Request: fold
Amino acid sequence: MATIFAQATASGRAGVSVVRISGPAALEISAKLAGQLPPSHQAALRTIRTADGDVIDRALVLPFHGPNSFTGEDVVELHLHGSIAVVDAVLKSLGRFPDARLAEAGEFTRRALENERLDLAQVEGLADLIDAETEAQRKQALRVLSGHLGDLVEGWRSDLIRAAALLEATIDFADEEVPVDVTPEVRALLSGVTDQLAKEVEGSRVAERIRLGFEVAIVGAPNAGKSTLLNALAGRDAAITSEVAGTTRDIVEVRMDLEGLPVTLLDTAGLRESDDVVETIGVERAISRARSSDLRIFLAHENEELMLAPSEGDIIVHPKADVFPDQRNAISGKTGEGIAELVSKVTQELKTRSLAAGVATHERHRMAMVSALEKLKSAQDVVERGVEYYDIGSEELRSAVRSLEAVVGRIGVEDLLDEIFSSFCIGK
Reply:
């Protein structure tokens, strides 16, 4: 592999900028720039010079000898003063070495995958950690990056391989008396993996919502105060408000952080029958988006019927507490009455749902686990049919193992790699 280099910190002026170098010639090239390198994993102050001997900067030099580095290769980090001119001069000097080139997007992380320093799920966890905006997203991404999902998959894989081996051992005695009945152990292994896998598949839906953000739709009739409420919750004029009914035609979205949980609030069109073609389209979109949302806030007067019925967990409040002061459980976006209580209800409901979150955070993970679960249940059915079907059951188990291996990138994900690593910055 070529030796690669790139700025690992954000471009632009800063207090410190880090340039990372990785590959077989990383130590040699760095020594030509900085002189004698300190021992592995120890930083030292060095003078960085061009090939002509001109001083570029005084910087901390931190080497990592492979395989004990992020990429698994020899790696050197140059912690420079965060000047645009300094960083440019260092990158130009590195580019003059014939055996070094500028890294591509995500190439450092890709090398970590290829050198088995990370599995693919950990790579995705790293990307999620970089993109994390809330505390819940940070904690979840860190769990994946730490290898929790890979550990789960490895445990399931070991149990299924053990079960398949037991079935195959029984097949070897097809024409003889089987010395030990392996069926009870096989049943226990398959039952245990099935239960854990089903739980993780269910929890992956919640985990994905934490990663992408929960959607909370504000629903109600025209002029119920939905846009005013959205603005009050957002703390700014995100949506147009007017006394004219039907002002909101399209979905207005506002991103919020509710006690660490990422939430997107949706202001939707007022629900009513209309002869206006454009408003009718807005109402249809509002109903569709509200149905697909994780939670709905209904602004409705007592006994008022809307075109959409509440689901379990939805929150119903009476609108315009400033106009109808005698209403109980009322809210007003204008005066702020009931806002704190509403935010508390939404937060508590989403926190309760978050407790069921699994470790798998991506649709790719979920689909691979669903495939494994289907094959596992098929294997269970085959095993119950008797010893003469054990060969089919064993093959079903190995198919389930292959599906699980796709979660951590052992097989069948080559076509996804370019897409996954394209989301990383050059220095990662």
In short: DSSP finds 13 helices and eleven strands in the chain. The first strand starts at residue 3 and ends at 7.
